[in-house]
Amino acid sequence: MFTGKPIEGQNSPGWTAGYHLIAATAAMVTGSALSTGAWILGGWWLLALPAGWAVTLHGMRNLRMMIFHQCSHRNMYRRRTTDIAIGRAVSSILVIQNFERYSREHVADHHAAHHMTLRDPTVQAFLISLGLRPGMTREAMWRRVLGKLFSPLFHLQFALARARSFWSASAVAEKATATVLYGGSAALTLVTGTWPAFLVVWCVPLIPLFQMSNTLRLCVKHTFPPAGTEVRRGRAYFASLTNAIFIGEAAPTGQGAGAWCRWVARMLFVHAPARYLVLTGDTVVHDYHHRYPSSREWYDYLFARQRDLDSGHRGWPGYEHVWGLVPAINRVFDSIAAADPEEYDAGRIASVSKRELFAAFDD
Mind listing the pLDDT tens digit for each residue in 44-101? Predict the structure, then answer.
């Protein structure tokens, strides 16, 4: 489950939609409690803040990447009213694109004939928000993305775009929920003088950390078709644009202690954060979702994909995968470099507001 690839013969733990919802919510509550305790105790206890942020962020990302996403497909509980209510609640808590707009655009432009064309919000985010272009070197793309990740201006623009995207055309229930949650929190913390705690405990994972995770996740979602691709339809074409991303690397069997120490360090400090904070939940097997977007087995994602693989993938081409977050990003960057510069000319994109571009980061 850590790697995203089941061990041969491993049985499903029996996940359900409810389990994922409860687990994500519990992570947010637990992480916030840990951060609050560290803040109150002060001193050396402040060193526990990053752990609290990590747990909180993990819960937020699972709410966004699994719960909100499946609700947009009306696939969470397969009850329209319930799925809409949960989706609206998540958008209000995380201040992301309002639920109805996201649902409409995600299904129409990202899961249809416009997938990975200039009309796809994901492509627009790559070309305009991140400024990546066909022909750029991999190194230049890394410099551009890392510069964005640590740019205060980028995060400010991203946060403002999130708020505008949420508020614009959102349902009354979404506006009311967000107003009560954030208006009430702001008023209470200002009156009690605890607003610094609110900023540190909740807003750090909600804004800069969430957006860093968001950006890295965007960079592994889909590859671009190479220049000269003529067939732009059918299962083979759509399957070629998405691959699984397994986390980890082979153990250095038969090597010395130094190799084992390096392996343990990389598993703990490279691969574990990538899985827990960026490729959360079912994002490691996003290829399964694009083959079966309305699968009733979505909550059993790792094992559902493996079962499909073992059974011959039902008329689809074979699955592809990459091991590790950085190699997965390199694969996407290389595909952008090899894409048709005329087809993916950002100047051909009709006027799109920054609000819409940043909303596309998690499309």
Answer: 999 999 999 999 999 999 999 999 999 999 999 999 999 999 999 999 999 999 998 8
The Cβ of residue 77 has, within 10 Å, a number of other Cβ atoms equal to: 15
Among 179, 147, 149, CA closest to 163: 179
Exposed/middle/buried for 106, CB within 10 Å: 0-12, 13-18, 19+?
A: buried
At 213 the three-state DSSP class reads helix
Integer Cα distance of 61 and 55 in angstroms: 10
For Cα atoms 147, 149, 152, give the angle at the middle one, nearest 5 degrees: 85
- Structure token pair of residue 298: 């979505």
Long-range contacts from 250-253, C-beta under 8 angstroms, 24+ separation: none
Q: Alpha-carbon distance 166 to 186, whole Å? A: 18
Best CA proximity match to 197, nearest among 183, 208, 186, 213: 186
Q: Can you tell me the mean pLDDT for 208-223?
A: 95
The 10 Å Cβ neighbour count of residue 1 is 14
* Distance from the Cα of residue 272 to its chain's centroid: 16
Check the CA dihedral 78-279-363-173 and report its sign: positive
Q: Which two tokens stand for residue 268?
A: 């703990």
Q: Which amino acid is at 275?
A: R
DSSP line for 287-314 = HHHHH-TT-TTGGGHHHHHHHHHHTTGG
Alpha helices in the chain (DSSP H): 17-41, 49-62, 69-72, 80-94, 99-105, 121-124, 138-149, 152-167, 172-178, 184-192, 195-198, 204, 210-218, 234-239, 257-266, 272-273, 286-291, 301-310, 325-337, 354-359
Let me know: does 239 contact 231? Beta carbons within 8 Å: no
93 close to 85: Cβ distance less than 8 angstroms = no
Q: How confident is the model at residue 102 (pLDDT cuts 50, 70, 90)?
A: confident
Within 10 angstroms of residue 274's Cβ, the number of other Cβ atoms is 22
311 burial type by CB count under 10 A (0-12 exposed, 13-18 middle, 19+ buried)? exposed
- What distance in Å separates the CA atoms of residue 139 and residue 111, rounded to the nearest whole number? 30
